[in-house]
Amino acid sequence: MQEVDLEGANEKDTANDSPHSVQEAGLKPDHSKTFRHRDGLGRIYEGPPDDRFLNPLDGTVKELVVQCTDALYRGPKKSTYKRTFIRNVSPITLQIATWPISHIYDEPRSRSKKLWDNIRWAVGIPGLAATGTIVNHGNYDPFPYRYWGSCKVSRNMLEEGTPSSGANLYAARNNRILEPKYLCIVGDEQFGRRKLVSEWKNDLENQSHHGKCPEYLFIAYTTEHFNHSSGPDMQALHAIATTATRSAGLIAYWVGASCMQRENVEDDVFRISDVVRGAHSMAIVIGPGARDVQGQSSTKSMLQHWGERLWTLPEALLISSKRPISVYRRGYQEPLLVPKNQFAAMAWADSTMTRELIDHYEGNLTLTRLELVTIAIQCLFARQRGEYLPGDHSYALMGLLRIRPKIDATDTQFQAFARLSLANDSDMLLERLMCISPAHPAQHWSSVSDAYGINVWDIYPACQIAGVCSDDTVLVDGAFGATIHWDKFQKVANTRRKRSWKRLAIQAMLHGAPHYFVIGMVLFRAGWDIRKHWALFFESIGIILIATACCVFVSSPYLTRLLYGGRFWGTQAFLFGFEGYLDIETIESQIFGHRMGRLRWSLYGSSLSRHRKNDFGESIGVDPTTDPLTRQKAEHALTNTISDSMRIFTLVDTNTMTVTMFEAVKPPVVVLLCGAEGGMQRAIACSYDWTTGTCYRETVLRMETPVLEKMSRVERFRFGMNRAS
């Protein structure tokens, strides 16, 4: 990105500080790169990678202009989008009509101030109100999205084009192995000899086993202690493994250094879990590593170093609990025997969570599918990556599940997990992770830490993952969505379920007064031109109409407030956004022309929302900046010079008449309702990367469930949890 000359920009903006000015983006896109976008109607746009959104009026991709507070407009220019002032969009006539009563106070007024009030009242006489019109049948503006690309892997095989070898989801199969391919057979030699199990079974000397695989010891170790490229390390590892096998009364052992084929690592890596399941028992071999001080490190500390390795978790979970786990230390003869149910506290830092997994596999504690996968993925991603493939965390998890997709070496961590999630019934864990509101901006996609403090199983998804795409994205179907308007507020039409007789009379007087006046003048003038016995009648009617019109004119500001004041039964649904913070009275004045108490702060709309109970025990939303920490964030955002840091935004929902303040890096241009939780909808607020057609999660808001009635379904959309840096 190229930075503009801030001093020159400041001079330009100072000279053109009009309500209609648009400030250029402080960070310019790289114009040497050109990208292509195809909208829902097939129209093509090409241009540099600037910030854009899908216009709900015509479906085209247009430049994003964000209205912001005056302080932000004149502050540091470090945004990637254009900015403009917040404009008052209420009808001019309504602004004029409410101007006389916009500063009425309850306390006594001085004579000079009363005189000024009278002058304002006189100016407001011509004000006859007008409001916006109903559009989209009163519904939110839709999100006119269409995805034209293809998926790396689809849930439905019919949507595949010509998939690469092993890429299709239907390559998933229950490909468990009943026995290992290789074992190290212990004989009279110093070390065990690697041998094909099939050859061993066909050997005439082993016919007494009736074709069964010999019982074997599973050897667990870490390359930190035993380096594969070191001859002495490998000799020591096999020597200890041979000793442990003989001590267990067995004739074979399995060790990854010898029994896994490097040329077939993609097939062998997920078979480790089956090898562990079939093992007689497990022996862990440890030794001083690079982090261990010679002669000073304890067995427990070296065992904890072993426990940091990714594959140690499924190894310890799946091994039989009938026999204790043997821990052999290099240079020591006698092993340390650890019962499986006590192993977590000794080997793992996250012993609380891993103990739950051990108890589940021992049958002492039954976890649901969702709980099992959720806890397992948190434990696995807390460990270091293995030495095989980028998707090792998911491949390690694969060993705990029934259906195993064929491994693709080109998969990233996210793609491997998404592929696994599609193949197995994991209670829509990935869909639930989509709806998680990250507790901090750098949170990993696999984390279940939610800013609202809920558990992942409290979320009920309302969408479905249809496929896995490139760049750590997925194709999502079934969500409801609505476009957020950032460039300006719009006039909001309102409806009432029932008009009172008083309001009907006021409306007739206000809208009929000009006609009354004209008709009265015509009748009064006509009285001069007709015979005497009709003149008095016409003049009387004319005077009455003129007098009535004049009374309405004089009282029009007051009548206007009576007519358009109060609460709305229904309003045109819009989502308006602006950058920064304003008090709710100012926001309402900008949209409706006056402070009438119609808007309210959302109680639980975002992590910044605040509420309290009043004297009657009712929950009411309060200004988020009453919280000192939130106020500090809002003030810091005014002088923020880091382009990819969190900013303060405000969302106005004219359907529920709520205002929500939230944090995000970029202004989200659409809300996608993908799930429900705690009696409210999880609304994923997304920015739009038009260069790839991807909706990226910026934050997750909570919206009232009735908003679903005024939202439309969104076509299958490409979704990413984290925008690539």
Give a verbal description of the structure.
The strands form nine sheets. Strands 10, 18, 19, 20, 21, 30, 31, 32, 33 and 34 form a ten-stranded mixed sheet that branches. A seven-stranded mixed sheet has the order 12-11-14-13-15-16-17, sandwiched between helices. Helix content is 30%, strand content 20%. It has 21 helices and 34 strands. The relative contact order is 0.12. With 725 residues, the protein is an alpha+beta fold. Among the domains are: 92-130 and 497-567, no CATH class; 175-346, no CATH class. A hairpin with a 7-residue loop joins strand 11 and strand 12 (193-196). Helix 18 runs antiparallel to helix 19. The model is unreliable at 1-19 and 120-130 (pLDDT under 50).
Please give the structural blueprint.
Elements: E1 2-3, H1 6-15, E2 22-23, E3 27-28, E4 35-38, E5 44-47, E6 52-54, E7 61-63, E8 65-68, H2 70-73, E9 82-85, H3 92-98, H4 111-123, E10 153-154, E11 182-185, E12 193-196, H5 197-202, E13 217-220, H6 231-247, E14 252-255, H7 256-259, H8 265-268, H9 272-277, E15 281-286, H10 299-307, H11 312-318, E16 325-329, E17 336-338, H12 343-347, H13 351-362, H14 369-381, H15 392-398, H16 413-423, H17 429-434, E18 460-461, E19 464-469, E20 473-477, E21 480-483, E22 494-495, H18 501-526, H19 532-564, E23 570-571, E24 575-579, H20 584-592, E25 600-601, E26 610-613, E27 619-622, H21 628-638, E28 647-653, E29 658-664, E30 670-677, E31 680-689, E32 694-704, E33 712-713, E34 717-720
Parallel strand pairs: 8-9, 13-14, 13-15, 15-16, 25-29, 32-34
Antiparallel strand pairs: 1-3, 2-9, 4-5, 6-7, 10-19, 11-12, 11-14, 16-17, 18-30, 19-20, 20-34, 21-30, 21-33, 22-23, 24-28, 26-27, 28-29, 30-31, 31-32
Helix pairs in contact: 3-19, 11-13, 13-14, 14-15, 15-16, 18-19
